[in-house]
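Example 3.2
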Amino acid sequence: QTMLRFMRKAASMRTGATARVSRMTVRAMSSDTATFEFTPFKGFKLDEIPENKIEASKDECIGYFREMSKYRRFEIMADTLYKQRLIRGFCHLYDGQEAIITGLEAVLTYDDSLITSYRCHAHQMSRGDTASNTYAELLGRETGCSKGKGGSMHMYHKKNNFFGGNGIVGAQVPLGAGLAFAHKYRGDGGVSVSMYGDGAANQGQVYEAANMAALWKLPCIFVCENNQYGMGTSVERHAFNSEFYTRGSYVPGLWIDGMDVLSVKKGFEFATKWCRDGNGPLFVECQTYRYHGHSMSDPGISYRTREEVQSVRKGRDCIENMRNLIIDQGWAEAAELKAIEKEVRKEIDDAVKEAKAAKELPADKLTEDIFYNEVPKFIRMIDEQTSLHQ
């Protein structure tokens, strides 16, 4: 009973205290542009934090609605494919968190570097890959980014500086610091965004990377996507200090409402400018929520209630909030937005069909892409008979 009361209190904090502040039009710029307010930012060791207002256009907001709807639909179909046993292995879905990658990419360019954890399908597409290629990787087809050999956790798009998709908890964070070092070494003006979850926030390597980034003033944004649960353990139970934006000690931090795409965009305008101006790294916490369990093997309701999930869907969902904003602003009718969702559904359905039609990688190709350039003349296998000789 004590634990149940604890869980109910924690759920109330998640769905109540951090609920979205009602967004209102502050000033109409034109019929197609307006200024909006959102949940205030919180700062740590920052002399100033961004104002909780942003100017946005009709085209921008409808674009965000379409993009977030695409990521949501992609993950819903990934759930279906997994249950049909067409996707094997681990599979971690991003539905509920779409505002973060959408708002972030509205600020970044492909010259900036991005690296994240294993919850990476939307990131692969945000960096320019197609939905069909992303599905192909999930389905083990050779048209996938890793020729179907990496699967859900190992997305990659070097052309546009996306470095995964990493299967080890927190391991991407020091790699992100290394990408920031490369930007500074080259002097190309780029920043590195290194994303991780609240469960990874207690990893020692996060702070080793932050220490080096601070010493060398690297242009690195350490982004904690706080979806309230490290696997099945709530933040109240796994973190003594759950204000992750304050964890840097000597590195400043910024808290963002990660369920609001406009808030995310404004926050990352500040964060990228901070880094590009040579101020060193910044910790950013985007508070968000995932609707699925930690992975497809987790039903997601053994450590939280269905009512908690539904309350977030009803009150804080990033897509529904954007839908309401667009309709309230008179920029589109509900039927028009439904038509966009119908287009997105067809796009994703077509992507699934294309991925399913792609060929699987031949068995003799499975050992390729392990060594760079020259393959060793001898590769030891289980025994001498199966070892490879050249």
